[in-house]
Design brief:
There is one protein chain. The protein is an alpha/beta fold. It has one domain: 3-Layer(aba) Sandwich (Carbamate kinase). A nine-stranded mixed beta sheet has the order 4-3-5-2-1-6-10-11-9, with helices on both faces. Strands 7-8 form a two-stranded antiparallel ribbon. α1 packs across α3 and α5 packs parallel to α7. It starts with a strand and ends with a strand.
Length: 235
């Protein structure tokens, strides 16, 4: 197995499937099964999910809402998604723990780094909800921060496309895919991988990122077994 401990970053939009809003049960069930297959292979898995399928704080602020209030609402949206994924995993008998950066004792544990690492060592899937717990930070930044804190080997960013392209492949038919790219090249070419805060955190801590298509069944397992899938970002 190429990676022992991974942090999987999922976008909230990915959970919509073909819907315009909310959570597609078929999509989340597929994700849960893929995660179970990886866990069964002996890989320790932590997960961060966005909340864009339910609420985006930045968009709310653009329409006149207070940015801080909007960001906290977005954090709550990530907890809803995290609970949905936890439920889908537990239905197929995967032990999980949900930790939140905002205290919500009735539904999840508070984020405690040592406890999170212990859960991983015991073979539980750990889901981190509520972002960093601070406004103005994205769930990409939360993923980078948590990955560094738990000493993950890699961040796997699951998206709808199969890697990083020279342009948006959904809009530009001439866009070409990178198999691997350096952090410097991403800066120089202004490629959209993560927001700059998240990306800089990974670079400074020499944490590689792989952007891949999470919607293709089996991709996650093949990736952690060492197959060249998606685009690798390294120093």
């Amino acid at each position: 197995m190429k990676y022992k401990r991974i942090l999987l970053k999922l976008s909230g939009e990915a959970l919509m499937g073909n819907k315009q809003f909310g959570i597609d049960t078929e999509r989340i069930s597929q994700y849960a099964q893929d995660i179970k297959d990886v866990q069964a292979a002996g890989v320790e898995i932590a997960i961060v999910i966005g909340g864009g399928n339910i609420f985006r704080g930045l968009q709310a602020s653009e329409s006149g809402m207070d940015r801080v209030q909007g960001d906290y609402m977005g954090m709550l949206a990530t907890v809803i998604n995290s609970m949905a994924l936890q439920s889908a995993l537990e239905q197929i008998e995967v032990n999980t723990r949900l930790q939140s950066a905002i205290k919500m004792e009735a539904i999840c544990e508070p984020f405690i780094r040592r406890r999170a690492v212990r859960h991983l060592e015991k073979g539980r899937v750990v889901i981190f909800g509520a972002g960093t717990g601070n406004p103005y930070f994205t769930t990409d930044t939360a993923a980078s921060l948590r990955a560094i804190e738990i000493e993950a080997d890699v961040i796997l960013k699951g998206t709808r496309v199969d890697g990083i392209y020279t342009a948006d492949p959904e809009k530009d038919a001439t866009a070409t895919k990178f198999d691997s790219v350096t952090f410097k090249e991403v800066y120089d070419r202004d490629l959209k991988v993560m927001d700059m805060t998240a990306f800089t955190l990974c670079e400074e801590n020499k944490l590689p990122i792989i952007v891949f298509d999470m919607n293709k069944k089996g991709n996650l397992l093949n990736l952690v077994q060492g197959e060249k899938i998606g685009t690798l970002v390294t120093i």
